[in-house]
Structure formats: C-alpha cells, structure tokens
Amino acid sequence: MSDPNLEKDDDGKVRTLEHFQRPYNMSSTLMRKGNVSPKEIATEYLREVSPLLEIDEKMLKDSENQLVENKLTLEESSGDK
User: Fold this and answer.
1) Sign of CA dihedral 12, 16, 17, 19
2) pLDDT greater than 90 at residue 29
3) Which has the closest alpha carbon to 24: 10, 39, 44?
4) Are 40 and 30 in contact (CB under 8 A)?
5) What is the largest CA-CA distance in the chain?
6) Hey, which end of the chain has fewer CB within 10 Å, N or C?
7) Is 5 in contact with 21 (CB distance < 8 Å)?
8) Secondary structure of 10-76 in HEC code, one letter for each residue
9) CA distances from 7 to 16, 55, 57, 74, 80 (A)
10) At residue 2, does pLDDT exceed 80?
11) DSSP state of 2
C-alpha cells in the first residue's frame, strides 16, 4: 500500500486518511486476476488500512457477510420490476 497522509486526534486515533500524493493501487494479485469488481477492490483496501484505523478483522468479515445478505439488484432498489 502507498503511504497515506494520516491526521490523528489528541487520543492518537486516525481521523483523516488521504492518498493525494500517492494514490491507492490494488495489489498485483488483483491486477493479475483481470476483471475485478469494485467490491473486491474495496475489500482489499479495507483489509490494508484496517490496522491504521484499528478496525478488527471480525468487523470486516461481518461487513462482507452483511453486504451479501443485503444485496439489492438495480431493479429492486429503483422499484422497477
């Protein structure tokens, strides 16, 4: 992962994470895969920054499960059937 700019609060918690100088690049593993979904890129990104943001691995796994369970199709979300 590129080195993001971090801003922390008085308690040392990261409050801002920016990639302006060095944009985030997905891993070579995902690049080799080829047709990668936005969800796969987002999942990889969250796994990479989770230690900086102190996000527990269990929270990431739970959020992936919730995304699958709550998935809406475009038709369902727009009301078209």
Assistant:
1) negative
2) no
3) 44
4) yes
5) 51
6) C
7) yes
8) CCCCEEEEECCCCCCCCCHHHHHHCCCCHHHHHHHHHHHHHHHHCCCHHHHHHHHHHHHHCCCCHHH
9) 5, 16, 22, 37, 43
10) no
11) -
Evaluate if residue 28 carries a pLDDT over 80: no
State the residue for tokens 């008085």: 10
Look-up of token digits 């989770």: 50
- Tell me how far apart the alpha carbons of residues 52 and 3 are, in angstroms, rounded to a whole number: 11
Cα–Cα dist 14/51, whole Å: 10
Phi and psi, residue 69, nearest 5°: -65, -35
